[in-house]
Specification:
- With 177 residues, the protein is an alpha+beta fold.
- It is built from two helices and nine strands, in the order H-E-E-E-E-E-H-E-E-E-E.
- The longest helix is centred in the first third of the chain and has 30 residues, at 2-31.
């Protein structure tokens, strides 16, 4: 019995030491987590006025985190789209997700970095058989100075045959980091 108790104690001590090493190796970068906000919007095809449903019902989550003076931001959009839009490449002339990192200040928040992600157009036109899909932007990085920052963005759709360029749909920004 005595040997078993020593082995158990030694095993627990070793497990504790390994756990401490694992936590130390994880470091501060893994400790930071994204702060996110989710919002929704329904967008109608302005060039179509027929009897079929033609709305994209978007849900967008925008996230930001700060790690060692660097702001990381991304957005994920998912949607329920019209079934009859699936595999029709003449509905949109263009689509993009416009992601921004903004500095939080009193009054309008200035944009410090932005990126347009165009991969969303293909996903909108080639959703699953129910017209649904999702798109996640690449992570946008910004080396920040002092202050608070946030992720903000919009979906911009250029509808075919509407006589206009991109139309912007805004979503709620992430919490500040």
């Amino acid at each position: 019995m005595r040997t078993l108790k020593r082995s158990t104690s030694a095993a627990l001590a070793l497990a504790s030491a390994v756990g401490a090493v694992s936590l130390a190796a994880a470091g501060p970068a893994s400790a930071a987590s994204y702060r996110c906000t989710t919002s929704s919007a329904s967008v109608d095809d302005p060039a179509y006025s027929g009897p079929l449903s033609d709305n994209y019902n978007f849900k967008v989550t925008q996230c930001a985190k700060r790690v060692s003076g660097v702001i990381y931001a991304y957005a994920k959009a998912s949607w329920d789209g019209p079934v009859w839009f699936v595999n029709q490449t003449d509905v949109l002339d263009g689509a993009r997700f416009h992601l921004q990192v903004k500095k939080s200040v009193s009054g309008p928040d200035p944009v410090v970095k932005y990126k347009n992600s165009y991969g969303i157009e293909y996903k909108l036109e080639h959703g699953n058989t129910a017209g649904n899909s999702s798109f996640t932007t690449p992570v946008l990085r910004y080396s920040a100075k002092s202050g608070r920052y946030l992720a903000d963005g919009s979906i911009q759709l250029d509808w075919n045959n509407d006589g206009k360029s991109y139309r912007t749909t805004l979503f709620s920004a992430s919490p500040t980091v």
